[in-house]
Amino acid sequence: xxxxxxxxxxxxxxxxxxxxxxxxxxxxxxxxxxxxxxxxxxxxxxxxxxxxxxxxxxxxxxxxxxxxxxxxxxxxxxxxxxxxxxxxxxxxxxxxxxxxxxxxxxxxxxxxxxxxxxxxxxxxxxxxxxxxxxxxxxxxxxxxxxxxxxxxxxxxxxxxxxxxxxxxx
Length: 169
Known about the structure:
Layout: H1 13-36, H2 40-67, H3 80-87, H4 92-114, H5 119-148, H6 158-164
């Protein structure tokens, strides 16, 4: 059972700024991966994630406007791993693990916030949290495929590999 604070508050400008910052960074990362990965199945997954993050950005912007709060610039800290992902400095396994951890962390933050905010803010947090959970499921699938084939994200023949398996087994 979820415990709800007796005195719920609305999302603060800083909390909304954090949601916006995360959404924009996730969008940029997912979009770049969608454009750069040779594996058409993985590229499509990341492109779809990017589209979702754009929708999330629009929803957070609408929430900011509805709350009549000024934008607060919030950074998530020196997140050099995002740069490592985009530059290809991580292995595909490390990249998938990092992205799963990132989505899990954000989902936990959303769940924590949801316990203390007004009902009118819970809708947004539930929506965003469910999207994080869905992303984790798909990323966990990709991680399992990477464990079978460390070069999974490079495979241009991904659909054939899924349908027919590996001839190396």
